[in-house]
Every structure is written in C-alpha cells, then in structure tokens.
Amino acid sequence: MGEKKTVSIVGGSGYAGGEFLRLALGHPYLEVKQVTSRRYLGDPVSLVHPNLRGRTNLKFTDPASLEPCDILVLAMPHGVAAKELEKYRGLAPIILDLSADFRLKNLDLYKKYYGEDHPRPDLLGQWVYGNPELYREALKTADRIACCGCNATAVILGLYPLVREGLLAAGPIFATVMISTSAAGAEPSLASHHPERAGSLRAYKPTGHRHTAEIREHLPGSPEVHLTAVATDRVRGILMTAQTFLRAGFTEKDVWAAYRKVYGAEPFIRIVKLKKGIHRYPDPAVVEGTNYCDVGFELEEDTGRLVVISAIDNLVKGTAGHAIQSLNVRMGWPETLGLEFPGLHP
Amino acid sequence: MGEKKTVSIVGGSGYAGGEFLRLALGHPYLEVKQVTSRRYLGDPVSLVHPNLRGRTNLKFTDPASLEPCDILVLAMPHGVAAKELEKYRGLAPIILDLSADFRLKNLDLYKKYYGEDHPRPDLLGQWVYGNPELYREALKTADRIACCGCNATAVILGLYPLVREGLLAAGPIFATVMISTSAAGAEPSLASHHPERAGSLRAYKPTGHRHTAEIREHLPGSPEVHLTAVATDRVRGILMTAQTFLRAGFTEKDVWAAYRKVYGAEPFIRIVKLKKGIHRYPDPAVVEGTNYCDVGFELEEDTGRLVVISAIDNLVKGTAGHAIQSLNVRMGWPETLGLEFPGLHP
Amino acid sequence: MGEKKTVSIVGGSGYAGGEFLRLALGHPYLEVKQVTSRRYLGDPVSLVHPNLRGRTNLKFTDPASLEPCDILVLAMPHGVAAKELEKYRGLAPIILDLSADFRLKNLDLYKKYYGEDHPRPDLLGQWVYGNPELYREALKTADRIACCGCNATAVILGLYPLVREGLLAAGPIFATVMISTSAAGAEPSLASHHPERAGSLRAYKPTGHRHTAEIREHLPGSPEVHLTAVATDRVRGILMTAQTFLRAGFTEKDVWAAYRKVYGAEPFIRIVKLKKGIHRYPDPAVVEGTNYCDVGFELEEDTGRLVVISAIDNLVKGTAGHAIQSLNVRMGWPETLGLEFPGLHP
Amino acid sequence: MGEKKTVSIVGGSGYAGGEFLRLALGHPYLEVKQVTSRRYLGDPVSLVHPNLRGRTNLKFTDPASLEPCDILVLAMPHGVAAKELEKYRGLAPIILDLSADFRLKNLDLYKKYYGEDHPRPDLLGQWVYGNPELYREALKTADRIACCGCNATAVILGLYPLVREGLLAAGPIFATVMISTSAAGAEPSLASHHPERAGSLRAYKPTGHRHTAEIREHLPGSPEVHLTAVATDRVRGILMTAQTFLRAGFTEKDVWAAYRKVYGAEPFIRIVKLKKGIHRYPDPAVVEGTNYCDVGFELEEDTGRLVVISAIDNLVKGTAGHAIQSLNVRMGWPETLGLEFPGLHP
C-alpha cells in the first residue's frame, strides 16, 4: 500500500466536512493535510468539532491557501462546487464532492427539483455517483466522485434489489423519510433553535423534495417514487419507510431472495427482519455513528402491500462514510477501512 | 345546569384512565366519585399520577366496591370490557368505554384485525363511536359511548372531509402514524425500557395494525386505507401523514373548501397550512396536553399527489379528551368544557 | 369582581411574554388589549406562539402605539425596562416587569453581578419583589411588581423556611440549578442550535451567576449561597439541589416542621418526599406547565448534611405564572386564578 | 505481540458486559471466546446487542460450560462475584471484575455503604483498583483487577490532582453526579419505563450513594467528599460538578499546574476550559462512546470557590473502557489499543 495519501477538505467546519475529517483522521491510509474554513480561520478544528480534541493539531486554513494533495474533498453549500470547480481541479487528481452539484446527469430532473438550469452541464459526464452498491465498478477508476444525498441513499438502498429484480407492481411507491436535525447543517436559525425544535415532529417537505431527483435517476427504470420528509428531533439518523405493492405472483420468499442476491456480499448492508427480540426492524439508533444501512421489510399477505424499511446515519452512510467507502473502492483499499465503528448499545 | 354529575373510573392507574381522571377533576360539572385499581388499592391516586398531588385526596378503590354513579368510565385492557360488561351495566346509566371492544359493528373487520370472534356481538348495536366530528347527533342521546382509538382518530380526522366530499382518487391511501411511547401503556417491558427506547425510531407495526379496522368502518365508503405505525420516542403525540392522489379535476381550492365546509364549526379542529413562520404544518409538540386535532395538507400540482398531515395528543384527543368531548355532547354541556388548556410554547 | 381588567404586554414575542399572554388569555378577569413586537409587527401572535391558534385574533402591535390599560407587563431584555420606564409609566397604574431590572435594592450586589451601576437607583424603592411566598402583604398594595428570576425562585423557595427558622448551620450553601433551554430566550444562536444542544449537559455558569444577587438579597440574613448553573436539554424546567449542613441539635422532624409552618397554607408549594412510588422527590417533568414549586429534602443522619431539592417550570412559577400569582394578590383575586393547569402524566 | 489472547465474559447480556464485548471484538489482540447468559442461552449476542449484527457469530453460552481462557471478565450483579469467585478462579490466570465487589479494602467503608459485612475479606488483598491514572504501576502485574464504579471514576479523576497536590482547603467537597439511564442496567422496571423516565430529572440518591466509599478510599487522604446523584434522561454519560474552596494562597495558575503535572501524559484525560466557542467545559455528549474523561474547572477569584467539572461515558471510561485500558496496562500493550473511537459531533 505504500505511504499514506494526503487529503484536504474544503469547508471543514460544517457537519459533512467535519464527519469526513473525523473518519479521515482514523483512516490508516489517509493523512489530512488541510481543512479550510473562512469563518474559523486559524482556529483549531477541535474548537468546532470538540470530539477531535487531542486527536489532531490541525487548524482551519483559508481556501485560497490550499496546496496540492492527492485527494480533495469539497464540502460546500449546494451550488458552490459547480461554480468554483475550476479553482480546485488543479489541486488534486481525485476530487470528491459532498454536495448535490454533480449527482445528476438528467438535466430535466435537475431543473425540475433545483429550480434552475445546471451551471456546468459540460462537467457532469466525468462524475460517478458515490454509491458502491450500485456503481462499484465505475468507482474503481473514477477521479470525480459525486457523493450521494442522505435521504436518497436511504431510499435507493432500501428499494434497489426489488426494483432491479422486477418485484414491484407498476404504480407509485410512497417513501417517507424521517430525518434528523443535523441534516439541515451547522447554521443556526429559528427553525433549529432548540426550544422550538426539541420534541417536534414536522412534515417539513411533504412534496417536492430535491432528493427525489437522485432517486429517480439512479434507481433502474426510474420508478415513480414519491418522497415525503418528516423532521424528527433526533440529531443523526434516517428511518425510511416505503409503501407499495408486490407484483402479482411474487411472495416473501422472492423478496428475501432479491435482497440476498443483490446484497449478499455487501459489507455495509444488513438485512434486519427478526422474529424475536425488541430490535426486529432497522432503527437509526442502532446504526448511529456507523456506515451501515440496515434494510428490512414486511409483506401483507392478503393484499400484497409491501413496506420496506431502511435506517442509516445521515452523516456517515448518508454522507461522509459513503464517501470514504467510495474512496476505498477507488484506491483499491479494503472497502471497510476507517469505517469499523460498530455503533453503541444502548 | 344544576348539580354536578358523579363519575367513576374503572382502571384508573393506567395512562388513559389517569388522563380521564385529570380532565374530570378540572371539569366544572363532573365530580369524581371512585377510581379503581387492584394493584394500587388504597394508595392515593397521586402516587401513580404525580401531577395530581394536591389536587385530590382520592384513593384507589377495589372494582368490587364500586357504587352507583351517573357516569361510568371503563379504562381496562382490550377485551376485558366486553367480557365483564354485565358487572358494570347496572352501576350507571351512561357508560364510556376507552378500549377497542365496542368500536366496530363490522364483525368481519373485528375478526380480521383482532384475530378472534367478538365475544359479545349482541351488545354492539347499543354503542356509538365517540367521535363528535362524525357522530355528534347520535352522541346526543347515546348511553353507551365507545371511545376512539388514538391512531384511528388521527387518520379519520385527517381524511374525513376529503373522503366525504369525494375528492380522493380511487385507489389506496397510505397512512403513516408516528406514535409515542405512552401509547403502549403503563406496563414496563424491555421494549419500553428507557435505554432501549430513547432515541429509537421503530417501524413497530408496518402492516396489520388493528386501528385499520376502525378507520375502514368509520370513514364513509370504507376507502382502502393502509396503515403503517412507526414508534418515535416522544412520550405523547401522533403525527399522521397520508399519501394519495386527488381525483382528476380537483384543485387545492377544493381541498380547502372541503375542510372548511366540514370542519368550519368544529371547536377542536384547526386547519394548519401556513406560508410563513416555522410552524407551518401540524406538529404533535404544539397540541401536547390539548384536545386539538391540527390538520394540514400539501398538494403536488403536477401529479395530483396529496399529502394530508394531522397531529393530536394520543391521550387527549386520541383518548380521554375525545371522551370528555363526547360526554359534553351527550350531556348537552358546552362542548369545550374541561378541555380549555391551549398547550405550551415552547 | 366587576368587569375585566385590561392588560397589555410589551415584548410579547419572547418566551416570557408569550407565556404571560397564554396565562392572561385563560384568566377570567383579564382581557389582553395589546401585545407588542417590533419584529413581528402586524403578524398574528399565533404565528410565533402556535399554541394560541384559534384562541385569539390578536396581532402584534408597535410599542409606540400602546394605549392606556389597567395593567402593563414589561417583557423586555435585561436593562431596557429601567432605561425606558418613563415611556411606559403613564400608560397604566399597575406595572409588572419580568426582567431583572428592579429586583434588587442592594446597589452593591447589582454592581457586582451585573457589572455596572444601576441606571435608575431612584426608582428601586417603589418596586416589590413578585414573590407572594415572601412578600404577600407588600404585594397587596404594590403598583410596581418586579417579577423574580427563575433560578432565584427555585433556590429561594427551596431554602426560605430553613433559613427563616434558623435551621441551617453557618457556612456556605452550595446550590446547583439544572436549567433548560427556554431559559436562554427565543433568539437563535450556535449554542442553542439543536444539533449542538440536544443531549448536552453543560456547566454553563459554574460561578458568578447573576441570580445569586437576588438570592442573597431576598433570603433572610443574606446567607452565603453559591450558585452553579448546569444546562440540560429539557425545554422547560429547573431542578435545584442545595447542599449544606443542619445546625447541630436539629433533626428531620424540625425540617418537616419548618416547611409545614411556613408553607402549610401556600397554594403552589407542595412538599414532596415520599417513601414509595417512583416519583419520590421534586421533578421538573411533573410540574411542567404548572405554577407549582415542589420542594423536598434528604438528611444524612450521621453527618447532618442536608440536601434540599426543588423543581419548577422556569416559564411559569419561574416567570409568568409567578407574575400572575402576584397580580392576583395585588388585585384581591383568588390567588390560583388562571393557574389551574395541573400538569401532565406521563 | 504474538498471538491473540482469549477472553470470556460472564454475564454478557447486560450493558457493562455488552460494552466490554463490543470493545473486545474491536481489539486487535483479543479474541472473544465465550459470552454467557442464562436468560438468552443459545441466542446470538446480536439479538440483545443489535450493534453487533454482522460483527460476530457468537452465541450466549451457559456459565456452567465455560472453558479455560487467558482472561476472564466478570460482569455480574453486585455481590455475585465475591460469592462465586471460587467457580471462576481456575478458568483464567487474569480476572477482571466489573462489579463493586472488590473495589474496597476498607471493610468499614464497605459495611457502611453496602449495609453488610464483606463476604470474602480474605480475597480483597489480591485485587488492584482498575484505574490506570492512580494505579498504573500496580496494574502492570495485577492478575485481579477490580474495575471502577462509573460515578466514582468521574469524581476521582476530577479531583485527584488537586487532592494529591494539596490545593484544596480543609472541609467538605460537595460532588454532584448527573447520571444517565443505562447506569441502572438492562432490567426493565417502572422507574425505567420510557413514558415515566423520559424528560425527568430526578434526585435519585441525594445522600448515601455507595460510590462515596470508593471515592473516599482511593482519593489520597480520604477527603470529606459528599455525593449527590441526579438522574437525567440521557442514555449514557455522567457530568460531575464538585464544589469546594481552594486553600488560601493558591490561584488558578496552581490549579492548571496541578492538572498538567499529574495528567500531562495521560492518554485519556483532556483538560477542557476554553475561552471561546460553545464547548468550553466538559460535556458527556462530547465523550459519548469514548474512553475520555474531560476535566475542567472554574475559580471564583474573590471567594476562592472552585467548581471542578468532569464528563465521561459511564459505560466506557466509567466501566468497560477503563477495564480495557487497565488490561492494556497489565498486558504491556499500547494503552489506547481498542479505545480509539473519538466520539461524534454533532
């Protein structure tokens, strides 16, 4: 494996960049070189990310002073990476973007869900969607990796085997994602003010959620998935439930078979559907801090109604962990490297 | 109005009975006479319900020593009221049952969702479903009131005007109820053990939820409602989202019109769909402790997909408050009596 | 009692003003006339306080357009009331201030804990501290009521009978207040950003807490109370523990006697010290939304160490409820009027 | 280092045993051989500990079928290890006990706080208290390691440098530990029933806490530490505040010097006392899942009052992590092995 690869993070004071930083600091083949933040310029990264006290002496640097490195990670607000990519492309041969800017190739879907034309459609062809479960082969040689959206990951990984194997009836699939407060980022607002937010359950995006675009682009055949997002007051985690019908003639056995066939060798997907105990279905509390996506389901025999359930940590499997996994694939490293934390109980 | 009416509660150490007790103690026309509990016999009711310290000197009595009263409230586990009704019927001219025993007239639905034949089908005809929004007229003379299930209430009140006015397209309606831990009752178990339960989001009943029966029986035309229940770690409250399609030709205006027509005079239903502020849709945190059912919706113009959202406190509008409201209707009292608490912010 | 008294609230978009508004709307002898907010000018008060939807049509008005009323409530940030009192004094014969501006008469304590000279020492003599348990007689004729600080209330009410009756040994009393996030007000900040705040336990003010001044001024003999404030992630509520030693010769019986003597007739103080059940000591969860202060204690027989415990809702007994109670005393109304909510269980 | 050492865990279905299991599975030099549980005999360990799904195929075995191993870990309820040690002593040359049975040598303290004579005083001499910060040298050759109590660890590590260096004034030290629900173990009860427990703040052990004995035995000179325990509704974590006075003549500089002198080389202690940012003092949320003990303080200059603050994860640094650290010391392995997780933000 030789020496470590250097990685720098643009926008390291946010939650996505901070989580990538945490994982990169614990990765045996990565050496974090620079982390940028204009707001916290010169401050130790541990001022913002107190979990990193005593783990690194890195300080935030100016994005203008970025030096060449092996891998560059862009963790900037939506729309910035596409506009500023020219600034960064010469700095590193491999670039990962954690934003939504390069996840779609379908320009119509982009315009519909983001409300404007894509600023750099010419660049889109170079990017591979950072989802090893769907694009492992392409990732092996990808120098541009567009990391997945958190809600999209929960929906796509829950449904992919069923869609690919043709098990679902035609017609709409109603997906509900119950998300957490870290998904809205590190910027305070009245909506995220603790007394207003704690204990609340809000249907914050009943229709028109942008991740719908990713889901429709990346699921084979672009099924009619409808997405409703409900905000819980968990800090991390997504619970996804998708409701639809099984195609006539298929049974629970076929559902099991599809999941096993497609996910049997996946290191970070666990099928969770138990007959005893209190943890019978996926639960975001169980995967907190981990790169797992737990997937389960229940079939109503007499109607064929199928409920698919998945759970992830939005900042790990939904963002930075999925990015590290994609990078491991790209570099030819063991895919679980740096992603070993199993989560806590209780 | 004359003198107060006496009310006794059978099974007052549980959460439903305790909540009825709290509301009855604050009701100007009710006087609580007896509260039974075998387990806590002789203990002050405030030992179990610490909010009632200093509010009453009542002690738990033996159900065997119940005396005649004006109104008897049964708050026993499922299945007990139907079997033991003979014991109680002579004690009071008016009986309210908080359990599921008398909510259905359709014996097939009962058998399908409760897994056995109803023990006393002969009694069912006497009972009126304790939902003033649907059955106000019938409740005015009802001497047997079968109080509604909490999840059923959230679903029924969210959908009723749309179903009644014929606004929904044919086809399935997928309802998701995000419920809270008090819904499982006062009996400790591993599943309710705090370290296991706190922070968890569990799809605890993806299919086959018993309240589906009530929903199908009481919504006009018995629409195809599918119910998925997810357990959050709130102590109280339900957030319901229902996803379906509007019938072709109808618009957002029609949805507004239906809600206003049907609910315009309802004292406990608020249509919540704001264009500004951070509380734009129903949220169980806002209605905690109150008898409100907040209802909102969002329509996806291009597809006709409709998301209906409702929020209640499962122990108030979902149980004891709805029961008090039904009782107010029955007695000819102002319908909001004893139910004035507006909830807290924050 | 005659007709209702009109009350207006200056600064009604914050949590203290909003809570006073909620209580005033439910008070049988009060009519809310105006509620001011510069930021939300013209918006319905229910936009900010969603619990008040359907309960009032009031809109926020400009403080400059305040009209005369019977009672004026000032709910402004610290320091504003003292500076702007001239503006408001002609508007109403009775003024309540919810801020810290008029709570102290000792100018040295003010300077020590607030870091500057009091801007209007000439006014201080007119104000009575809004604590009926200590100053009921003086409040009966007070036209200026300085409402108490929330932490100060928890400490003072916990210790008052013991201090007054001379039961405590000389020497320091170490009080710890575990507070909640609403105490910091309605203004968002990084410290109150939900992902940062949820789950955290922060010693945010280990020394130098300003409420120490109130405690020392209003407890008889100005005992040496040291205050440490820890921020929990509850939205409402304070749990106070105070540790000190009983004076030699006194026993648990004497402690009981002191509490009974001083608090025996208090409508909002409950002595909570049970030998069975799970709610044996004061707990802010039990008093949420109520005007109760629950007080308990435990004595270590062999050392004489005494732990005093109290619990309040910081926005009710700690702010707006205590203010309403003081106002009830001033107006000669029943002291519990408008403060009847018993709290919820669970 | 050669081959891995085998470790077996007696009582692996509880939280302490489960946490040791999690850490041991991730430890490069440990191989978990057997995990016992009578209740879950034959079930996969991941049925109880869902975080371990896909990480191990171990099943719970009968304690009667334990085989010889290199290291045996006893994770049984209080009192069992002392009584049954004969059964286990032949199975492994090195034994760690996670209970309180062997933590004290002072038989009077044991009797006072545990209410009975120690059942096996003859064994106590062999055991070393599993606190590397105090007993690193002794642990290097210890074959019997008595792991520390969680609350005792928070108090001892907060105060040790100050006590050892003689910085504290004579007189009482009032320590308050704010603990979490996992501390009460995996057995459901009404007190741990989620609806009763969520949101509550309970002074559950104002006096007489058993860990006082450990604190007094292991802090040099047995200072007069008084312990009050308050239960929060966090699942994991302890925040400790201790209030006392600095000895006359000492200043903040001396406090810093003492901490730096004693803890300068400690791998798991961080001094947290910042002048900017929102994470200025120790917070259990920051150390969740980690083996860190964060320690901070604040000095009130004019009175000499000192508030010491510490934060740990009760199941890691307070139990299983401290045990692994002690074992690393005993085996001559790098002390941080298997304890690398830095915690999450947010």
Automatic annotation (TrEMBL), chains A, B, C, D:
A single MF term (Gene Ontology): NAD binding
Enzyme class at the top of the EC tree: oxidoreductase
Family matches, as Gene3D superfamilies: Dihydrodipicolinate Reductase, domain 2 (3.30.360.10), NAD(P)-binding Rossmann-like Domain (3.40.50.720)
Keyword Iron-sulfur carried by entry: no
Reaction(s) this enzyme catalyzes, per UniProt: [amino-group carrier protein]-C-terminal-N-(1-carboxy-5-oxopentan-1-yl)-L-glutamine + phosphate + NADP(+) = [amino-group carrier protein]-C-terminal-N-(1-carboxy-5-phosphooxy-5-oxopentan-1-yl)-L-glutamine + NADPH + H(+)
Domain of life: Bacteria
Pfam families: Semialdhyde_dh, Semialdhyde_dhC_1
Ranges of residues in domain Semialdehyde dehydrogenase NAD-binding: 6-142
Gene Ontology CC annotations of this record: cytoplasm
Location of this chain's protein in the cell: Cytoplasm
EC numbers on record: 1.2.1.103
Positions with a binding annotation for NADP(+): 13-16, 37-39, 314
GO biological process per UniProt: L-arginine biosynthetic process; lysine biosynthetic process via aminoadipic acid
Active-site residue numbers: 150
Pathway: Amino-acid biosynthesis; L-lysine biosynthesis via AAA pathway; L-lysine from L-alpha-aminoadipate (Thermus route): step 3/5
Keywords linked to the UniProt accession: Amino-acid biosynthesis, Cytoplasm, Lysine biosynthesis, NADP, Oxidoreductase
Family matches, as InterPro entries: AGPR, AGPR_dimerisation_dom, AGPR_type-1, LysY, NAD(P)-bd_dom_sf, Semialdehyde_DH_NAD-bd
Physiological role: Catalyzes the NADPH-dependent reduction of [LysW]-aminoadipate 6-phosphate to yield [LysW]-aminoadipate 6-semialdehyde.
Family named by the database record: Belongs to the NAGSA dehydrogenase family. Type 1 subfamily. LysY sub-subfamily.
Protein name per UniProt: [LysW]-L-2-aminoadipate 6-phosphate reductase
Organism per entry: Meiothermus luteus
